[in-house]
Amino acid sequence: MTPPEIFAIREGPPDGPGWRIRVIPNKYPAVDLPDLKTPHEIVIETPDHNADIPDYPAEHLRDLLLVFRKRLKEMSSKKDVKYVQLFRNKGARAGASIFHPHTQILALPFIPKRIKSELEFIRAEGLDFERDEGTRTVALEGDFIAFAPYFSRFPFETWVVPRKRRPDFAQTEEKELLPLALLLKKVISALKNILGEIPYNLILHTLKDRDFHWHFEILPRYEGLAGFEVATGVYMNSKSPERAASELRAAIKEESDERRDSQTSD
Ligand SMILES: [Zn+2]
């Protein structure tokens, strides 16, 4: 039994058929917040059991981003909530316990250490792509850039960010969400073309602090974590970010060439 929905993009009345995207509470929430009835939500991305982001039409992915924005806005407006984490696990190694395509959104009563250190880092140095001369750039779309950070922990780790520093994803304008969707789809499709059906995490880091810079991190998980990484928090990455970016650029180019060829031969 699916619990009653919190929100949906759908035809027909709530909790029946006809939905395209729906949000439900997690039956086993990982946190308990007095101010928030459902601190742990699940966004069911599509009725199609086997689809993944590369299969979604860009407009569908745009609608999914709209739902993310709406839920983040609402959850982060509650008094007890200090931070909201949106994450997507694809494949068992990336932590998925149910296999229908979904994203989880979890509200926390504190700001996690990882986010605090990212904030310090961004405040001091800004994001990597601002100094890179293009060797780690993967793709551009509208006001957004995808790049492989020099501190990549995983082979083919890619971040997708607005080029101008903006702290809070919830403030993104609706018209920006289509180019953002196109860029995410492009990068994840390229990863799939290079690596096949690998597990990956897609996470969003966003904060209401003027010095932050919101970003999606796409983290392929085909190598798994070894004892050294777990022991030290230091990651060994067998792929240089420059190499990863260049292979991703080539895969994106190949796909757009193929699309153009198939259009001109029609
Ligand atoms: Zn981050």
How far the N terminus sits from the C terminus, by CA atoms, comes to: 46 Å
Strand order of the largest sheet: 1-2-3-5-4-9-10-8-7-6
Helix and strand sequence: EEEHEEHEEEHEEHH
Question: Helical amount among residues, as a percent range?
Answer: 25-40%
CATH class value: Alpha Beta
Mean residue pLDDT: 92
Which cofactor or ligand species appear?
Answer: zinc ion
Main beta sheet: 10 strands, antiparallel
Low-confidence segments: none
Determine the strand fraction and express it as a percent band: 15-25%
Instruction: Supply Rg.
Output: 19 Å
CATH architectural label? 2-Layer Sandwich
The helix/strand class is alpha+beta
The CATH topology name reads HIT family, subunit A
* Count of the separate structural domains: 1
CATH-assigned homologous superfamily? HIT-like
> Tell me, what's the shape?
globular
Written description of the protein model:
The protein is an alpha+beta fold. It has one domain (7-260): HIT-like (HIT family, subunit A). It contains 5 helices and 10 strands. A 10-stranded antiparallel beta sheet has the order 1-2-3-5-4-9-10-8-7-6. A hairpin with a 2-residue loop joins strand 6 (137-141) and strand 7 (144-147). Helix 1 crosses helix 3 (177-195) and helix 3 (177-195) crosses helix 5 (241-264). The radius of gyration is 19 Å and the shape is globular. The model has no long low-confidence stretch (mean pLDDT 92). Zinc ion binds at residues 118, 205, 215, 217.
